[in-house]
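Notes from hallway chat w/ T.B., transcribed later so I don't forget. T.B. wanted the structure written out for a chain they're using in a teaching module, and asked if we could keep both sequence and structure tokens in one place. Agreed to drop them here.
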Amino acid sequence: MIAATHSPARLPWLAALAAAILQAAPAQAADAADARYDVFTELPPPPRHTDPDAEQQLELELVVNGLASGVIASVTRQGGRFQLRAQDLRQAGLLLDTAEDSLFIDSLEGVSADYDAPRQQLHLTVSPERLPAQHLGGSAEAFAPAQQDTGALLNYDLYVSGGERAAFRASLWHEARLFGPFGLFSTTGALRSNAGRAYVRFDTIWRWSDERSMTTMEAGDIITRTLPWAPAIRLGGAQVSRDFSVRPDIVTYPLPEFAGSAALPSTVELVVNGQRIAGSQVRPGPFALDTLPPISGYGEANLIVTDMHGRSVATALPFYVSSILLRPGLADYSVAAGAFRRNYGTANFDYGRLAASASLRRGMTSGLTLEARAEATGTMRLLGAGAVFRLGNLGIVSTAYARSFHKGRQGGQLTLGYEYQARTFSLGLRHSRQDRHYADLGVLDRNGRQNRPECLSEPPAESCAGNRERSTAATASIAIGSASTLGIGYFDIRRSGTADARLANLSWALPLVGESRINASISRDFAERGWSGAITLTIPLGGGNLGTGVSRDNAGRSGLRADYSRAVPSDGGLGWSASAFSEGGGRPYLRGDVLWRAQPVQLRAGAYGRDEVTGWFGASGSLVFMDGSLFAANRVSDAFAVVSTDGEAGIPVRYENQLIGRTGSGGKLLVPSASAYYPAHYDIDTLSLSPNVKADTVSRRVAIAAGSGHVIRFPIERAIAVRATIADTRGEPLPAGTPITVNRKDRAYVGWDGMLFIDDASPETGLEAILPDGTRCHAAFSVPAEAEEIIDAGTLTCRS
């Protein structure tokens, strides 16, 4: 047996070697394991267990009530709690009243959170009060001021009559109008034969309006703009007033609020009286529809909300709309001063004492409008106040009281009113009472027109108690079935110094087959203790209407009537009417007239009489000077337009999609009737023109100021249109899509089989083509300078 022996000096070295080998073994095993994982031969070991309550930093998309907000927020998760920046929540649409930079979701009342790990989303369930309100349907077109150019016009109306025993009479009414950026100047008058005064001036006035402030200024012969319970009078002076007519785009009365709330992304529909009038998609949260209902008075709307899962909820919302009320914060006013106009229609420059008036209306709430009124002369003062308010959905009540102080005497006026309108029923009640010594501008004007100097003396005579007045009116309308209507009315007017009037009326309208209808009415005069009535039958016949009827008056006399009328076609032509009326079996009263309307004038003629026949003739129209041209047209009662096509004649012109006519030899057409301040569509139709006519603009939307005119220009250009086939030097058509430069400025493209169309060529035209390989080739052709049709240039050879 052999025993091993080791030197004591070598033992430390051996121990160090053994330790190194033992330490390297695990590392080599780990490297080997990593190598196995790199070739995906085995799955990695499961992750270590994490603490669910440990804090986590996440980047999550915020989803609010099922609607993705598109906001990626940094979220700190601490167990079941989520902390976010307030800015991210606001950006996602939440309403927060906190000043903190970050907050936990569970600290917000009405908000909860749910973490969707697979989609990396944080779903927030938010109550409606935490979401912003949405206003739908309130968008309107940008305001565009009405246009007006400088011009002048003359409206005229000639009337001549005479007969066997009737004296010859003639009159020529006129209106001379000058307009432009300075406003509108107008004067009216009439030349008359066999009258005390050969020429009578009616009104001379200057008017200017500012659309942004809705203010109109007038000077000259004005009619005061006042409240419903105050009379309007004629003054020679000036007036400044709010004029809503210059802004038809503004709704002046309160609109009902159709509001609701959506918990999820939804679709909203508004149905009024069975008609869908609005609809939109809404985000979660409260919403309101700013929609103008198509009715006035009482109505019922159904608000239907359908969420993203198809579930629908319908809510009935009754409402009441009245144009008598003013929108909250909106004011209507008028201030006028001048001299009373006397003997209107008989004297030219007869003015009386000075007078002034002012009125104010202001919407306080959606259901209350307050009114105020003041008037003054040298001897009279008046103050008044009123209110118009809505009784929920039960109608509108109005009340007003005015107190006057005139030459040491006081008087008052009380006005009460009520109205209700619905789809099948309407009711109106009105009562007005003036006591003995009440005086306002209307009373003083009436006394002056009645030439009662005793009422203008100091003090007024007792006989002037005619100022005492009381009037009561009640009207109702009832729809019977789908088309029949029954109307009821009662009127009681009592004025000192005149006969009382007390009437009751019942009317009935019943449609029959087609457009035929029956109208019947019966009236009771309580003052004269008499009955009257009538029944008529109207039947469409031969493009017109035939009417027959029987009537009875208060005295018991019966009458028979028959008439036929045929209206003038909308584009002009001939119309006529005739009637016969016999009373008490006597000779009939006959009447007949014809009317012919053309673009430059309207002519009328007729005759009437029983035993003696009187004939008459009339002609009316306008002469308009605009844009260096004189136009003859039918009477221009308001705004008008001149359509210009740069001298191109025969182009059809449409106004609001209705054909008005064709441009004349100068390339212009007068549109004599346009709605003032309404942005209407004006179009030209170039489809019927030759291919060489080019129009960059064929439709315009323009508003024109009241009483004024505007030139609407549609530039028309004549071009040379050419078609050709372009090929290379081998006769092969150039590839489709090859770009062609025309005369070094315009661009065209080659079509299939080398077809080329140029819409604006010149007599000498040069072409340059860029071939697919980048090389260029050139061609040229010559054509006549003027042509009505497309020119065929044949085959062109493109040479390098």
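Follow-up for T.B.: Residues 1-40 have pLDDT under 50 and may be disordered. Might be a good example for the class.
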